[in-house]
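User: Could you write out the 3D structure of this protein bound to adenosine-5'-triphosphate? I've included everything you need below.
Assistant: Certainly. Input first, then the structure.
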Amino acid sequence: MLEVQGLTCFRQNRCLFADLNFVLSEHQICQIEGPNGAGKSTLLRAILGLFRADEGQVIWSGKSTTQQAELFLQQVFFLGHKFAINSDLTPWQNLEFWSALNPTQNDDFDSALTKVGLTGLEHIPCHSLSAGQHRRVALARLWLTNTKLWVLDEPFTAIDKSGVQLLQQRFNSHLTSGGMILLTSHQDLSQDFAQLHTIKLTDNTGEII
Ligand SMILES: Nc1ncnc2c1ncn2[C@@H]1O[C@H](COP(=O)(O)OP(=O)(O)OP(=O)(O)O)[C@@H](O)[C@H]1O
């Protein structure tokens, strides 16, 4: 279980959110919403310890993440705005490189790339791919990772409608198997999720629905 307790973050003397509290349990997905600049990415980064919050703490499995940072991050799959694809490598080589450094449930790169619609493009350099195909290479990792908590910053950016549907199906299978997902998105989720929570960041506070 992930617990966010009293999280407060300022940037450039502006309070992005104050005293934010929420819990994310197994099988739950939480969507963080808000206008551009509201602080959604900052919140994700603060939860992961990549940005220092001004106040508050994050608890993972009953213990502060600062006391178990390495262990915590081993159980997290994070997809940020910069999704760490080497354009000189092929999609297949990118997955091979990534899986050497991260906990995976399998090394079936061909299957993962097929899932994200990149059949036939597995072995050409990523710089020859479109923006959406590039993004799909990064998202193929979701079919390889075995981490419990997925933290995804705008995962649908540049993805077409069928890709969005496919991703959400993958989300559902992860949740069914006991996973948790925290994501930002400017789009409403189109699939039914049994346990969907929403956090709306406004001017300076998070409102939990
Ligand atoms: N590297 C940075 N240095 C200083 N201030 C920053 C930095 N990144 C973001 N900020 C400030 O923090 C605020 C929140 O940014 P953040 O990226 O968290 O917003 P967001 O809600 O994710 O926006 P978007 O929807 O545009 O992705 C912004 O208004 C910006 O002024």
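The two ends are 19 Å apart (CA to CA).
User: Perfect, thank you.
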